[in-house]
Amino acid sequence: MSARAQAVSGPPVTLEIVAAVFHGVAVSDAVAVLVVEQRDGVPRVGWSNEQVATLLGYGPEDLRAVAVEQLLPTLGGGELKLLLRRERTVHMTLPVRCASGALLECVVAAVPVPPPAGRRWTLRVTSTATEAERALRATADAHERRFATLTERSPVPTLLSEQGMRLAHVNDAFCALVGRQAEQLLGTGWLDAVHPDDLETVVEQAITVLEGGDREAQARLVRQDGSERSTVIRFAHVFTPGAGAGFIGTIEDITDRLAFEARLAHQANHDPLTGLPNRTLLSEHVAARFRPGAGGLACIFLDLDNFKVVNDSLGHTVGDALLVEVADRLRATVRPGDLVARFGGDEFVVVCQQVSEDGAVALAERIGEALHRPLTLAGVELHPRASVGVTVQTAEHAAAEELIRDCDIAMYQAKAGGKGRVTVLDAEARAQARDKLRLVADLREAIGRREITLMYQPIFSTADGSAVAVESLARWQHPERGAIPPGTFVPLAEESGLVSALGLLVLDETCRQLAEWDRRLGDRAPQRANVNVSALQLDVNLPGHVRSALQRHGLPARRLSIEITESALMTDPATARAVLLDLRELGVQVSIDDFGTGYSSLAYLRRLPVDCLKVDRSFVAELADGHAEITSAVIALARSLGLSTVAEGVETQEQADELARLGATYLQGFSLAAPLSGADAAAWFAGTRTATPTDTPDLELT
């Protein structure tokens, strides 16, 4: 058969023309053509041109002998026969499988080759994508490339899984984070970088994300060099058509943040000088181990003896060095698992578990011996000693803080017993301490309810025997314990921080009573009231409190005299002088109480703005024995400085006469007038305004 007859059934053509057409089809970049032939009953590709390979992504020889069903996967069973017809050309729009596995929507035209060529067809494949679609595809490809570039160069470590746990992409930041190359991490290699202890958590969260949703996991990543980084991995679900479910993971490196937080936590709970746990951590430690009714938990409280001497004589730097040395010795002496804490200042606490009282005492003694070993600081050899209190938990301890409080009490008992001792808090001491705490609570309530009452003891002038003033004296009638002496509750108020509230109560009540006497008695009312002030009240706030009390009750300042003990003035003479000057500027008088019993400097006395010296009752009592030297000297000293005097504790007429002869300005004592309530004082002043010491025999001693 001629070439013309084999090629077409139309007008005759030469073989040269047929060859030219075949060559044009073979190299065409506009028409994708392949030839299908039946082999062993299966249609396979016998030939294809370059455009087919370009369109579907195959190599030049990849399509040869490929079954047509693989290229056209939607034509299963007998549907392929509908395309490969012998009778006519057939056009179908079908998805054609590309080399990547993706399906490309195309129009396929199957042209049967005329006989006697056998069972052959030429398939012309044309993509259905329009120019606009191709433009959109190009734009999408550009976006994908930009996204890939952004991801790869992002400083945020990123993972991308297109299907399951296998990674398809990691960016440079993640590679840098774990110190590995991308090739080592793709697939499931990234799991090797997860710390073995955290791997299960990470896998669980990733599997959950594959099913949808977002998750995060805190995990350590192990670098190639073995170092670790703490991270938070945040997984987000992604789905890739044709691939399946995967995830995107972004990693936050929190190593530095955790380290910073750890430093802050350590600083908050540790003493910066010694590195020991501080008071806060001590409380938490004891509370975490305290079980009511259980035993075996012990606290050992240490206070260095004479530490102030070291600070004052060698300086605070040496004092700090001593504290550091003590901390080191404590760490080296306690048992493994025991806690050593710095309670504050030169105080330390050791907490032990599973220990008997004998065991705790033995440990306390070992600590004492360790501390007492000599050391040299600033060229001086020191032998540190500590007073040590020991408490072991008993059934009576209801809370953890009671355990620390009791060993604190035991330490004070040890210090009071002569320092350098170990004392175990016994039941009696614990009962006394708790009773004291209850009394403090009662005192606080009594002050708040103004149940602290005042008595007023008249003060007489030796010039005319008239009662010119009163001294306010605080009294506490406890509802269950009866009268509590001032010598008990005033120091208690000072120890417990209640003395300021107590002092303000006395000041206010005195001013109120003076105002009330003025309304009832007129010019027969006491012209002045003396109020005692604690050393702890002697601060810059005192003048303001006095001014407020006077204004609140409409009194002039001359109606008030503030009494301050000699020892209180000498505690801080500079501050005391400044406060007294402010009081004097208000117009308030100032007296030094119990003069002669302290250690005041006469030079300071001359500089202090005071109006009166009160001669202590102990010197007045010596008059009965014929010893008038000190009383006489004090009165003479006051007179030489232009000050008045009040002789306290006048018990006999002979004492009154002698004091008047020595030149005392005023007298005060039970033999003259006992302390009176406000109402009784009103009645007394109403009837004795002009009374003299010798005119008051009706006042019985109380």
Automatic annotation (TrEMBL):
Domain EAL as annotated: residue spans: 436-689
SMART domains with a match to the protein in the record: EAL, GGDEF, PAS
Location of the GGDEF domain: 295-427
SUPFAM superfamilies noted in UniProt: EAL domain-like, Nucleotide cyclase, PYP-like sensor domain (PAS domain)
Signal peptide: none
PAC domain location: 215-266
Stored InterPro entries: Biofilm_reg_signaling, EAL_dom, EAL_sf, GGDEF_dom, Nucleotide_cyclase, PAS, PAS-assoc_C, PAS-like_dom_sf
PAS domain: residues covered: 143-213
Domain of life: Bacteria
Protein name from the UniProt record: Diguanylate cyclase (GGDEF)-like protein/PAS domain S-box-containing protein
Organism: Modestobacter marinus
Species lineage: Bacteria, Bacillati, Actinomycetota, Actinomycetes, Geodermatophilales
